[in-house]
Amino acid sequence: MLAGGTGGAALAAGIQDIAPDDDLTVIANTADDDEFWGLLVCPDIDAVIYRLAGVFNQKAGYGVEGDTFHVLESLAEAGEETWFHIGDRDFAMHVLRTDMLRRGGTLTAITLALCRRFGIAGRVLPMTDDPVRTRFSTDQGELSFQQYYVRERLQPRLLGVEFAGAKAARPSAEVASTLGEADLVIIGPSNPLISIAPILQLAADLIRPDRTIAVTPIVGGAALKGPTVEMMRALGHDPDPVEVARMYRGVATGFVLDERDRNLAGAIEDLGYRTIIRDTIMRDGGRGLAESVLRLSRA
Questions:
Q1: What value, to the nearest 5°, has the Cα angle with vertex 67 and ends 66 and 73?
Q2: What's this model's pTM, rounded to 2 decimal places?
Q3: Scanning 21, 96, 141, 239, which has its CA 20 to 30 A from the CA of 222?
Q4: How many Cα atoms within 13 Å fall on the side-chain side of residue 143?
Q5: How many helices and strands (H and E) does the chain possess?
């Protein structure tokens, strides 16, 4: 599974539930990573780990369920800006990761160790051990992902997206071997511009299209979560599944389309895809969608 921290992570949890004997690896986007108070925060990696461990805060859409915010409150009392909300248990994750990096661990090795500590059967891999960071060009200057999405709430006009460091970055040996050996690669229903694009920029040539299925992140002209539609529109893309399918041409040959957009199936099939049409809204923890994706892979 290629995933960001929302739809792709949820689908990974669904696959884990319905196919516990399968060997599941989630390759997570790291371009949204950032540092706060000297700690490396990896939002997409952590969202996947928390979902697979069953502790993700579904209501907030980030962090750990039932978390407290005493550290953040103390930082605010000390005069710090606290627009990026980190719970206490979430802080512990970032402290541990940063300390393990300081002691010489790679992000891949550390992430695998955290999976074991959370009791996860599958693996979560960062897309690379090298630093890659999303940078938004806006009418108010260049912003990081967290500044643009969390602090500014998408208000500045978006002019472009770049992934700083991507040209020099390389996928880890674990990512390369996983993609080479996979019976099935699933491009999760994550934002194609900022969650999936950086992974593909590093690893597209390692993916076999005949073994790869993409799942639409757009249903009826809307994204279930996150700024996918707004970003696509701002950058001149039609915010619909056909445009997403065009983005994945060359890396996938299967496409899962929501039943509300069944009228677009012909246009997607004209791009060379096999399609399956179903309800892609994951009200059941992703289990039903996972069954459909695995059924399409067998077909």
A1: 140
A2: 0.96
A3: 141
A4: 21
A5: 12, 14
Tell me how far apart the alpha carbons of residues 146 and 271 are, in angstroms, rounded to a whole number: 34
First to last CA, the chain: 18
Distance in angstroms (rounded) separating the CA atoms of residues 173 and 236: 35
Superfamily of domain 34-123: CofD-like domain (1.10.8.240)
* Angstrom distance (rounded) from CA 168 to CA 205: 16
pLDDT in tens, the chain (299 residues): 999 988 999 999 999 999 999 999 999 999 999 999 999 999 999 999 999 999 999 999 999 999 999 999 999 999 999 999 999 999 999 999 999 999 999 999 999 999 999 999 999 999 999 999 999 999 999 999 999 999 999 999 999 999 999 999 999 999 999 999 999 999 999 999 999 999 999 999 999 999 999 999 999 999 977 889 999 999 999 999 999 999 999 999 999 999 999 999 999 999 999 999 999 999 999 999 999 898 878 77
